[in-house]
Amino acid sequence: MASNRESARGLPRLINVPGTRLIAALLTALALGYIAWKIGQAPPQALQFAFNGLAVGAVYALLALGFTLVYSTVWFFDLYYGAAAALGAYGVFYLRTDPSLGSRLDINSIPVNVIFGTVVAGVIAWTLHTVLEPRLRARASPTALRTGVALVAIAMGIYTAIVLSYPEHLHLTLSPAVGLATAAVGIVIAQKVAHEAVSTANSTLVALISAVPAAALGAWFGYLLFGTPEAGLYLSWGVSCLLAGCVGLALYRGLYVYMRERARSPLIMLVASLGILLAIAAFIVIVFQSAPRPLPDAFGSTPLNIAGARIKGFNVFAIGVALAGFAGMWFLLKMTSFGRAVRAIGDDEEVSKVVGINTTVIIAVVFFIGAMYAAMAGILTGHDTAVQPRMGLLLLLKGWIASVVGGIGNLYGAIVGGFVLGLVEQFGIWDLAGEWKDAISFVLLILFLSFWPRGLLPRR
Amino acid sequence: MPVNFEGIREFARIAQDPQELVRHARGNIELWANLFVIGWAVAFMLWQGFGFAVIVGTVFAIWAILAVSLNLVVGFTGLLSVGHIGFFGLGAYTMAILTSDPAYEQLRTEAIPTFGWPFFAALPVCIGLAGLTAVLVGVVFNRFRDDIFVLVSFGFAIIAFNVFLNLRSVTRGAFGIHEIARPEIGGWVFDGEVEFLLLALVFLGLVMLVSWFITTSSFGRVLTAIREDEQAIEVFGYRATHFKLAVWVISAMMTGLAGGLFASWTTFIDPNSFILLESVLLVSIVILGGLATIWGSLLGAMAFVLLEEGMRFIPYLPTEYIGQARQVVLGILLVLLMLFRPQGLVGRYRL
Amino acid sequence: MTVDNEALALQTEGISKHFGAVRAVDELSLSIPRQGTTSIVGPNGSGKSTLVNLLSGVLPLDGGMVIIDGVGLRVVHAHETPAHGLTRTFQEVRLFDQITVWDNIMVVLTERSLFPSLIERVRPAKRRKAQEILESVGMWEKQDSLAMELSYGQRKLLEIGRAMAMDVQTYLFDEPFAGLFPQMLERVKDIMKQMRTDGYTIVFVSHNMDIVRELSDRIIVLDSGALLAAGDVEPVLGSAEVIEAYLGA
Q1: What number is the ipTM of this complex?
Q2: Which of A426, C82, C147, C152 has the fewest beta carbons under 10 Å from its own?
Q3: Rounded to 10 degrees, what is the CA torsion of C1, C5, C8, C13?
């Protein structure tokens, strides 16, 4: 059925003309030759361009990772992905604007807080319901279960709204949540380790035993956080990513599921998500106005000096985030049962359903993670340059191009494609002006679609 | 077909019996959409007065030309192009450079070429240049379909915008071009808004006529077949790529015409009129109105223009956010349409 | 030799098609004479549909040559096959779903070249032809409904009607009988018998051995992309290797 999918995503066949491969090889040689010549001409400058390329490439790689994960699972282009990047960046702007950069006070925040509180409440309600319902069906009555879930969800929604309402106190409001999360992760890890060591280990017992140190660790973490207001920036990153992820999940569960049932073609989904992108972009303009705004400096603005070329500390950090994002995705997809389920759904959703994979849950989580990656990329871009409402669509397109260049649906391709796109963009504007970089990336896209339609590293 | 005589006759028969009419109207979205939009337009004209309605009417005429021409590609041929704003901008810039006032341009900072042509001499050049560019772009784009076509057409819009913004020696970049000539015939200038509206409506009529002629010919039937199954129609002896290229070029030429008209109407253009978002809005208009009908594109353009005016009714909404509010509504409308009515309000083709 | 070529409607010389490591059609050489019916049979995955796709240019050849009506082609372009006198139907019915039944027939009757088709309107002669075709497949009453609204059997019939409207010498029918109710099946059989008496060349792929025995003058048996046997029906179907291929697979 590979051919079906190929036609579904409209990938063209390689041109059926004899010299195609020759032309492709020539083009590659020309491009590499040009870069080599440029490097030979001015090595320090070349290093500078390479650094710049890696810096933007990191963002593109993150985008491509999330994009390729979502796309190779559901096989339609979700344009919300671009909105997620903008949402993430504006989330940080919303939570961390210092007064010197323009006060947050001119933003009427109550409706925004309520909206996101509602979204989080909905997501929590659905998550709890899907997790608890099959396990507690025998022990608790449906009414009690539903009431409990609703209460917890409403509480979480209110908590979210409160967190959003007092952005200057993120370290205070979030310390209990971080503490609890740490404790929970500790217990889960203890269970996994115990299960690996002794396969017959009683998980309840392990949980009970490990609860004490985990709770202590969580309390300690929460206490630490309580006393560090400087952590606010990083907390705002986390909150923005989670919120963007929640919106992605809510969109999938609340809308795309129904749409996919009746959609005849992937274009329906594309147009619908285009509508969502339009609406969210306009919403951002209404709340934040359309002018570009800077985000506060994350790592100071003094650049590092390496062999005559300069690179901002933040950009090194961004490259680190991209690599970490890749490592996380690699672990998730190659090492866990979740990853196997994702792959199975990408290969054939119907069959996965038949063999007992809960496709709705898995795909919802995929949307959550994908949107988090996009949001992180948006945040990095915001810190590096500025946030503006239109950034979403352009970032989405860059992620899309990077994943086509790397090979759609290939994890390694995504990160390679991201860095290749960044480097090509930067070396491309060496002799042109910097404003042409978007045009350059699309020329690269069209060349790739014409000569290497399946990308550098094809899926399988 | 824009005029469905059978439908009208059928409607006349139904209209004679009130009860039948009620039964027929219930659940007939097409009828409601038509009545609603046209009623709104009439109410708007009565409410705002003739003068303002003329300006809105001109905006509508330009959007309608764009929508009708894009529908040829999106609705009839099934290629979801988000790049038509590039041809629109190309037409507008051609018109601007050819007809802007040389004396005025010389006084400005950066020198750009000026010609001082009259409108009607420049318009064929707008159309021709847009067509020529479309041939070049189309030859490359012809191989792509569905999602990938959307992506590369995004790319075309962005490349075009980059050119408008950065090729300063020709377009003066972000400063834009002023003093673009209004059309004139033998000394009589289309200076007033009413005259220009009439001219725009004449062009809209021409574009509709051409579209109607194309879509009702054998060529149009082949286009719909290409939309349904490109490989199958090849087996029956048609070169789908040629047909797709032809309709792409025709559509681009009409879009170039709209661009020339637009530049001449506003007498000032800058790259901000040709951003990607405008192209996305244009696609939404076509989908909202209805795919593969000419009337649907008119309806969509009218609904889009009136939507902005309707936004003024929303309480507490500052006027500077009306455009954004319209965008929110349009976005939600798109989602609802895709859920419940993938062919648009009066469309003949489900996406 | 020339006389032989005259009598052949279709011929292949060592054509191949690979999907990755799978050799769907492997160095296949066969010839199909003019007139009469030839059936292509073989176990599942033996390359029957791939062969039809290669002959009609839907899939590009990886090697070898197809000779249609005496013209040797190393690259078969789908849009050129009608000019060589060849048309086909698809295994999974591929109609133009969102246009009417009438337009589905009309679209293959109209002008092929670009500019004449721009000004062409429906002419009475072509209207009559379309009506004739629709009546012969029993779809005249359905002419205004969309193709997607038809039942499976009607779609299958309409597709055959669309191929008939092409009015060429050679027809490739890919699984024309699959999934049909007996009544429809009889109708398709009658159409094919009529075409046989009218002197057309019919090549069809089928799994139904009774129909193959009933309709075909000659038979071609494929197995794993290679020619297993070819010739008259009874001796071929009776041969030991064919029986083994079917039972062994």
Answers
A1: 0.90
A2: C152
A3: 90
